[in-house]
Amino acid sequence: MDHLDELENQSIFILREAYKNFKNLAMLWSIGKDSTILVWLARKAFFGHCPIPLVHIDTTYKIPAMIEYRDRVAKEWGLNLVVGKNQKALDEGMNHEKGRLVCCEALKTNGLHCIMEEHGYTGLILGIRRDEEGTRAKERYFSPRDKNFEWNFKDQPPELWDQYKTTFADDTHIRIHPILHWTELNVWEYIQREKIPIIDLYFATPEGKRYRSLGCAPCTGTIDSTAKNVDEIVEELKNNTTTSERSGRAQDQEDTYAMQKLRARGYM
Amino acid sequence: MGNNGSTSELSSRLLRLVIVGHVDHGKSTLVGRLLSDTGTLPEGKLDFIRDICKQQGKEFEFAFLLDALEEEQEQGITIDTSQIFFSTAQRKYVIIDAPGHKEFLKNMVTGAADAEAALLMIDANEGVQEQSRRHGYILKLLGLTQVAVVINKMDLVDYDEKVYSKIRTEYTAFLDSLGIEAREFIPVSAKLGVNIAALKDEMPWYKGPTVLNMVDQFEKKPPPDHLPFRFPVQDVYKFDERRIIAGRVESGKLKTGDRVIFSPSNKQAVVKSIEAWSVPEQPNVATSSESIGFTLDEQIFVERGDVCSLMDQLPIVSTTFDANVFWMGKRNLEKGRKFTLKLNTQEVECEVVDFKKAIDASTLETLTNQDYIAKNDVAELTLKTRTPVAFDLFGSIATTGRFVLVDEFDVCGGGIITTYTPATKSDKLRDEVRTRDFNWIKSDITPDERAYRNGHRAALILVTGDPSSGKGPLARILEHSLFQNNFQSYLLDRRNVNLGVGADLDDPKNSGESESARRLGEVAKLFLDAGHVVISTSNAFHQEDQADLRLLANPYQVVEIQVGSQSSGEPDLVLSLDEAQNAKEASVKIQNFLKEKKILMGHNYSI
Predict the structure, then answer these.
(1) What pLDDT score does A247 carry?
(2) For testing contact with chain B, the best of A52, A131, A163 (most B CBs within 10 A)
(3) Selected residues 172-201 of chain A with any CB under 8 Å from a CB in chain B
(4) Residue B549 pLDDT > 70, yes or no?
(5) What pLDDT band is residue A58 in, cutting at 50, 70 and 90?
(6) What range does the domain containing A206 cover?
(7) Domains in chain B, ordered, with CATH?
């Protein structure tokens, strides 16, 4: 068993625990590489099927190619896709010019709350990873949120021997993070090994630019790169580990503790 | 280890390393220093931290690399465990920074439970402290015995060898008492980078490895493929035509064609296929830590919690066992209160029946006359579960020999199973029944064929209640009425069993009662094997004996019909005294119930 196998087996175990313990479960699919491998891992865990609905939060500011890719893959893989939007905030003209953190919270966090309430989801599977940033490094695989969707990072449940928090008081919901222990490089190596079709925004344009992390068009920048395919991205990451993956994500740079503040209030 | 294929495969995987120790002894600083000295940090990260420190008017603090939470940086302590990746020239690591403050023990446990090796930090200036000892004990309980001790802040004691030796002697004695042998005691200054990545000149008396050399010497545990096969069932899927038993191999190996047995139900079947999606070729072997699924040749009832093993290497099945437990709950762990035990995928109510020894984990002193433990303490105790669980001793198969305890909604304790002696009568009986069932010589006529001919499945009908309830006459009428419907019914009277099979028992009513019950159960089992509906009125039995009868009748169905409201166990059907008075009508009601339960099916399944 090599390292990727180890990661894959652990993620499958977590997905199955989630599926067994939470009947009203949904998986967040941002169309990015991480949540896309999550869908792939679910199909591995459930032998070709994905019995968990996929929620996509549409901020309407996403890069258009992402929506095309989403609809095509959902059809090919037979996925149950649920699209959520914070229509009220959009009608009131919410955009990043009102402040990046304000906008993220309104369109993403609150958009997510709306769809979860509408469908009564009590468990949400997310593709976040520990190596992305400091507060995610402190996450649990099964992480409770209170009725206001808040994360009490100062009092997290213990997690040992693959026993997770699966019982909780009413009004709590659980965030489940099956690829928490993967790194960015692991994700690309896995895409390479499994030949997972990934959106081509990650690949370098002839002008030498590519997205390393995907988000809303106004707040997501490209990096300089010549990596035109998965193999070349893997090579690029192996040789260059000194810039951070989320360096193209403007909201992270708004404030020293930006991610902690966003995440404590329910951001992914 | 030789330089063969398997070695390079092992070293290509990453090692999970935890840093533990008392608060403020420099754990986060060591991790920060390791990251910085191995060039693992992203560009700009050190400047970023430098800026935060400047903002807060502090000296540069390596710990901020991990202590990302605002509260952690303000107070200068680690609140939660953090995991961060780094690599040496040798291999890759996940480094787990565990908090050292007593308040955050559960976070320390979370970090350490996942690790394969540990660095335990001791401040040279403060010496061995409360958490130095408690963390040592917890490591032992977690089965993490690959430990090196790092004596930090040597710069504050002028790099004095005497200080180092004193701590080394004191802590070695402590680890000895736990049965842990530290791989090395490394004197360092994490803040100044002494003996972290390179040996510096400050301590010429120290000839051992640097921290970095030390971690590269830690070994990956070989996968437990050589141990008996254990597969706790996680779920059963029926997404398409396949009925797939899903779970993870905890130890050992499974091949297609293996005959497997599920504990505690003792059901057996043969593995027909090992299933997988999007793989180069369909597997026919599965080994430890693989999350797999398989199909069986027979559609036996299997559910989450069952433990699958091979025939000749069974797990222990019991309701009682001894364990070492550490406690992290806000409320005490005490006798008489019910908790949920989670052992692999099994979940069952349990309680502590005996505190053998309550221990203060910070001193290892025994807390005398104490039959509870409070947060942060440990105990040697006996647990009893409501229904039998399948497990192994932690010393033989670690992954199936450990459990957590849940109080209300929260995991509050963890434990390892140290010993098991079939203490109770029913444990002994369960072992006997298991041996009996495995060695049972099966007829060429299958139970299904008998059921088809007889119009019913074999079942034991226990009619319970007060002697004056009228259950005796009811049982006789039931036997007769079933017989008239061409069913194979037999009223097995305990007195008849005692007259012959039990003739050698001195006093079947008193001391020999449980033996008498056992014999009745074994005779019933023979009738059941012959396909009969066996009826018994067991008023003289204790509830315990009734449980024994259920056990002995395995794998056949037992239906308990209780006459009157007097509660005994968990009856399947309750008849009021008035209802029982009209025995004919009561008998019809019972038969309807047996039809519902698919015990009576009618000849050629005509019902």
Answers:
(1) 67
(2) A163
(3) 181, 183, 194
(4) yes
(5) confident
(6) 198-253
(7) 12-217 (3.40.50.300), 224-310 (2.40.30.10), 316-424 (2.40.30.10), 445-605 (3.40.50.300)
- Contact call for A47 and B276, based on CB within 8 A: yes
CA nearest neighbour of B517 among B509, B526, B529:
B509
A243 touches chain B (CB under 8 A): yes
Of all residues in chain A, the one with the smallest CA distance to B347 is: A163
User: Residues A162, A240: one domain?
Assistant: no
Are B133 and B173 in contact, with CB atoms under 8 Å apart? no
What pLDDT is recorded for position B10?
38
Q: Do you know the residue count of chain A?
A: 268
Query: Distance between CA atoms of B501 and B519, rounded to whole angstroms?
Result: 7
Candidates A8, A14, A21, A138, partner chain B, best to mutate (most B CBs within 10 A):
A138
Beta-strand pair B15-21/B82-87: unpaired
Domain count, chain A: 2
Q: What is the model's pLDDT at position B51?
A: 80
Q: Are residues A102 and A212 in the same domain?
A: no
Q: Using 50, 70 and 90 to split pLDDT, how confident is the model at B80?
A: low
**What is the token pair recorded at B598?**
């698919």
Phi, psi of A248 (to 5 degrees): -90, 0
- pLDDT, tens digit, for every residue of A35-49? 999 999 999 999 999
Contact B342 A163 (CB under 8 A): yes
Read off the tokens for B209. 């490895």
Among A156, A160, A243, whose Cβ lies nearest the Cβ of B42?
A243
Report the predicted TM-score, pTM, of the whole model to 2 decimal places.
Answer: 0.80
The mean per-residue pLDDT over the stretch B29-51 comes to: 79
Residues of A in contact with B410 (CB under 8 A): 157, 165
Q: Does residue A170 share a domain with residue A233?
A: no
- The answer to whether residue A191 is domain-embedded is no
C-beta atoms of B45 and A165 within 8 A: no
Alpha-carbon gap, residue B533 to B458, rounded angstroms: 5
Backbone angles phi, psi at A189, to 5 degrees: -65, -35
Tell me: do A165 and A242 sit in the same domain: no
- pLDDT of B64 above 90: no
- Three-class secondary structure assignment of B211-254: HHHHHHHCCCCCCHHHCCCEEEEEEEECCCCCCEEEEECCECEE
Cβ of A47 within 8 Å of Cβ of B84? The answer is no
Q: Where are the beta strands (DSSP E) in chain A?
A: 25-28, 54-57, 81-84, 123-125, 142-145, 173-176, 209-210, 223-224
Best mutation target among B18, B52, B73, B80 (most A Cβ atoms within 10 Å) is B80
Say if residue A44 is in the same domain as residue A160.
Answer: yes
**Distance from C-alpha of B458 to C-alpha of B447, rounded to nearest angstrom:** 8
Structural domain includes residue A193 = no
User: Residue A189 falls within a domain, yes or no?
Assistant: no
Summarize pLDDT for B365-412 with one digit per residue, the tens: 888 888 899 998 899 999 999 889 999 999 899 999 999 999 988 999
A 106-135 residues with CB below 8 A of B?
Answer: 130-131, 133-135
The span from the CA of B509 to the CA of B304, in Å, is 41
**CATH value at residue A144:** 3.40.50.620
A12 and A117 in a single domain? The answer is: yes
This complex has an ipTM of: 0.91
pLDDT band at A161 (very low <50, low <70, confident <90, very high): very high
Same domain as A260, residue A241: no
Q: Is residue A169 part of a domain?
A: yes
- Contact status, residue A27 vs residue A116, Cβ threshold 8 Å: no
Q: Within this chain, do residues A171 and A211 fall inside the same structural domain, yes or no?
A: no
Average pLDDT (B124-134) is: 90
Residue B194, pLDDT above cutoff 90: yes
